[in-house]
Structures are given as structure tokens and as C-alpha cells.
Amino acid sequence: MQDNTIVIQAPAVASKRSTREWQQADAAHFLHPFTDFGALAKKGSRIITKAEGIYLWDSEGKKILDAMSGLWCVNVGYGQNSLVEAATRQMKELPFYNAFFQTATPPAIELAELLAEVTPPNFQHVFFAGSGSEGNDTVVRMVRRYWDILGQPERKVIISRKNGYHGSTMAGASLGGMSYMHAQGGLPIPDITHIDQPYWHEHGHGMDKAEFGKVAASWLEKRILEVGADKVAAFIGEPVQGAGGVIVPPATYWPEIQRICDKYGVLIVSDEVICGFGRTGNWFGCETQGFKPDLMTFAKGVTSGYIPLGGVMVGDRMAKVLIEQGGDFNHGYTYSGHPVASAVAVANIKLIQQLKLVEHVRDDVGPYLAQQFASLKDHPLVGDTETCGLMGAILLVKDKAKNTAFPAEIDIGMVCRGHCFGNGLIMRAVGDRMIIAPPLVMNRAQMDEMMSLIRRCLDLTLADAT
Ligand code: PLP
């Protein structure tokens, strides 16, 4: 028999080119996500070339503190060898096989088992996908299938929230409440409706925060009654809205949402794509916010972003029906249960356990961040700060005493973000909110370093704005 293995020298990881050369090639061929293609082509992108711990380096050799964990995902920080080794080992052993047609691979089974261990006790089953968006597409199909099986096919409507983010596929973007996304491509798809977000600065002024939490939750009950309780399939939300600007709801919000959903038999979906895997100081954000979902979407932190993987944890209430009465579920992805991604996820979760990162966030750096962010309120630009675990937001205001916002044309968030880039710090701007979600491995000394960079950037922003 002929040996079909051809030995080819692996290419160098990245060829050496100047920043300008990278930018030219980038502009010529690469259409970036959520980007004005034309504007970026003129300006040139920033080229990130390596990373270690909580730091990145760009193609100019500049060191940058990554206070956004890549895109809310590098929970264990960069350069963790156990993840690299898990991927290498699995690639050599079995780089791919699918989970269709009654087959499985050991890493996917092991990951399913481990997820059942770290998620709340009512989650014993998982459906794998390749990303958070695919996970939320799965949610829509699974929720509707569940009600079909139970003989209530008219229960189709999913209630979500304005300014929530649930991904970029047709269903993900529809579940999300970003109006600028809906404006492109005729979204949302039918049977998805949005209520206002529990953002005190937008809707709650003059109201006690605990009271506001209940008022914001009552908007769900109102919408359920408008739609008709027998038509509502599920409510979906992020425990803490991430991309919307780290909107931390009052502690009264989610328990009241739970009460309302229970009252009308509506399923609860917790989108844990950002909040999962330790971000909020518990394994999952629903534990921090005090509610018990029926489904949980996850991605990002499950592999700390080292390799794409997402999915949906399916709670016992739904799993029982889908397994015992459902028959075929006609849905799935080539990469559902990808063995290499699963092996990396297993290594990542074990590392989170070994490093006790959940406890580290809950007992040490989470409270420390809360204290440090609270101390920023003495800054003339800072109208408020909010944190939950290792997520935080700084609200920039024009006049603290009168609580007035900057005019939109100043785009104060982008001014501040520019100073962050210039000073070796990655923070994200969402309107007038500057947000962070640093790697969970960050220690107090590194947090002090981050805080002094933040203060410097706020000072520079203030100088520009006055
Ligand atoms: N859900 C939430 C809460 C997210 O923040 C994101 C991405 O940022 C998604 C879903 C979509 O995940 P992905 O980009 O992996 O498709």
C-alpha cells in the first residue's frame, strides 16, 4: 500500500513584515467584524503580534495591558501551556471527527461531563456549537421544539431586551436588542420582541435602585400579557449585559424576573457567553444574580478564547422532554463537539479549578476592583462606576453636579479610548461608558497598574473635553 503521508515543513507562525506591510495586506483583503471597511482601510489596523499573561504586544513592540481579555474571553490569561499542550496532543491523536450519526469522541464526552460538574445542579446535558451566536441559534430552535413536543406550538415568542447582545447570526442578532444591527438586514426575525433594559441611569433616575429593579422586571410581565402568556416561549438575558456597556442590574431584578417567568411557565435563558466561567465571581452569572435558568448559552471563557467553542447547557426540565419525547432534533453543526476544541476546554476548566480563579475573583480581585472603581468617583469626569466580579463600567459625564451627559458629537468614550490606546491600555467605549473585563488571573499589583493607567487616561480625556 502506498503511504499517503506527505511531509511538508510547517510554515513559520507569522512571516516578518513591517507594520505598514501588514496594514496594506490587511486593507487589501480582510473585511473586519463590526467595522467601517473603508475607514479602516484608510487608517490602517493595529497589528497584535504576541501576548503573555495579561499583556499584549503590537507590531511596533509596544506593550499593552489588555483590560478586555481579548473580547471578554481570555479568562485564564495568555500563554497557558496546558491549553496549548491539550490542543497539540489532541491534534496528533484525532484532529477531527463529528458527533453526528451516533458517534462521539472522548474529549467531547469528557467536556460534557465536566460541564455538568461546574454548572448548577439542574444542568446535566449540553448541546455543543462553535460560538455564542450558534449557541443562541440553537436556543431558538430548541425552545420552539420543546413547546412543539408539549403540544403548545403557538408558544413561539421569545422576549429579550433592548441593548442586549446575543450574537451576529440572524437569530442571534434578532435576540439581541441592538437597533443599529436590526437596521441592517431586516431584523429582528418574527416572534422576537424586546423590552427595555434594567439600566438605572436611563430609566430609573429619582428611584431607589432596589425599587427600580422590580419596576424594570415588571416590564416583562406587561409584555407577556400584551403578547398573551400562551404565546410566550422564553425570556433571554445576559445576567449582566456586557457589550451593552456592563449594565449591572439591581439585585432585585433577576429574582423578580424568575418569579414572573415561573408564574406564566415561561422558560428562562441565561446568556452566559460573557458571564460564564468565573467572570462574575461564581462559575455562572445566574448564580451571582440569583436565578435558575432552563438553558444557558456559553462560549468565550469555556476555552478562554484559545480556540472557538460554544454551546447550550440544557436544564433537566427541558432535557427530560427532549430526550424522552422528542425523537430526532434536526439541528447541529460540523463542529458540534469538536475534539480539539473540547480538549482545550477541558484543560481550561481544569486550570480555572486548579488556580481557584472563581474564588480569586469572588474573594480577592472582584471586591478589590469594586473598591478601586468606587474611588474613581472623585474624578471630575466620572458620574458613576459599577462592577460585578471582574467586569466594570465607568460612566463619563460632563457635569457631575447636574448629572449632564456630553453632547453626542464629542463622542467622549472614543476620546477616552484613544488615550487608552496611546497609553498602553485596552478599555472599550460603549457610548459614554468605559468598560473593562480583564483576565481573571490579574493580581492586585496588576490591578493597581491598570488603575493608574485608567486615571491617566481620564485626566487626558478631561483635558481634551474642557
Ligand atoms: N452572547 C453574548 C452575551 C456575547 O457577548 C456574545 C459575543 O460577544 C455572543 C453571545 C456571541 O458570541 P460569538 O461572538 O462567539 O458568536
Automatic annotation (TrEMBL):
SUPFAM superfamilies from the UniProt entry: PLP-dependent transferases
Keywords per UniProt: Aminotransferase, Pyridoxal phosphate, Transferase
Keyword Aminoacyl-tRNA synthetase in record: no
Alphabetized GO MF terms: transaminase activity
Keyword Transferase (UniProt): yes
Coiled-coil stretches: none
A Pfam family annotated for this UniProt entry: Aminotran_3
Cofactor or coenzyme needed: pyridoxal 5'-phosphate
CDD domains reported in the protein's UniProt record: OAT_like
Family: Belongs to the class-III pyridoxal-phosphate-dependent aminotransferase family.
PANTHER family, per database record: AMINOTRANSFERASE (PTHR43094), AMINOTRANSFERASE CLASS-III (PTHR43094:SF1)
Designated name of the protein: Aspartate aminotransferase family protein
